Amino acid sequence: MGSAAADVVLGGGAPPPPAAPEITEDIGAVYREVDPASVEPNPRQPRQVFDDEALAELVHSIREFGLMQPIVVRELPGQPGKYQLVMGERRWRAAQKAGLTAVPAIVRETADDNLLRDALLENIHRVQLNPLEEASAYQQLLDEFGVTHDELASRIGRSRPLITNMIRLLRLPIAVQRRVAAGVLSAGHARALLALEAGPEAQEELAARIVAEGLSVRATEEAVTLANRADGPTPAAPRRKPIQMPGLQDVAERLSGAFDTRVTVSLGKRKGKIVVEFGSVDDLQRIVELMDQNKP
Question: Where is this region: Disordered (predicted)?
């Protein structure tokens, strides 16, 4: 590949040579080789956790075959030959560990308020963010752009219910958030814990129990329901137990999976009942939108 003196201009003029990546949306971007030591990390990188084993595998691959996909950087104003990373921090880290002194890079103009957005989108598309990192990035984008959930969803190509539900995870106690960030608790476990009405201390206790006993998301939802009933008002006189028909539990499980919430199906003497639980008005809106999507 050529040096910085032989930049390949992308997005304008003649098309790039076949060996160079095709970039058409960024007018004025250039393809060049840069020293990874001349690149500083993205200060708004939403990803905080990098898997050491996966990084080691990438280092081995780079030593064997080189860096196949360029990183994306922007030039630092007033500092010739110095760059700031926009996308590709994992590749950049691995290239340094592999001892490379030159890596392929797309150099393009990127505004400050796009640093977080671009890094977030790359990580989302590569499924590399844990739920808390993704939630924090969404919240930061909301704060920086001053937009609604709907407007943010339109800007980054995600659904509004997904953004709303991810941000709700930030309401969990810090101790529970740490477990989610570490991958010990799934996003499904976290959403179930949000419905626990007894408060942060009870959420932390149930989170510890989930880890200790290996509770599934469904078992966690049931534990939350029981706890909420125990903390609620004195129950009315017991009603006739619903008739349990074969196949009802299977239907309930299918609906629970489709709507990502607890659904119960019961059959009385004269009629049946389906109960769909939701944690908030936003969660209810998410479920309604899913129902609308499934209309014939």
Answer: 1-26
Residues catalogued as catalytic: 89
Could you give all domains of the chain from N- to C-terminal order, each with its CATH number? 4-112 (3.90.1530.10), 172-231 (no CATH), 241-296 (no CATH)
d(CA 73, CA 65): 22
21-41: string of b/e by CB count within 10 Å (b at 16+)?
eebeebeebbbbbbbbeebee
Q: Are 36 and 85 in contact (CB under 8 A)?
A: no
φ/ψ of residue 232, rounded to 5 = -85, -175
Cα–Cα distance list, 135 to 24, 33, 208, 279, 290 (Å):
30, 34, 22, 17, 21
pLDDT in tens, 128-160: 667 887 887 788 777 766 778 888 888 777 788
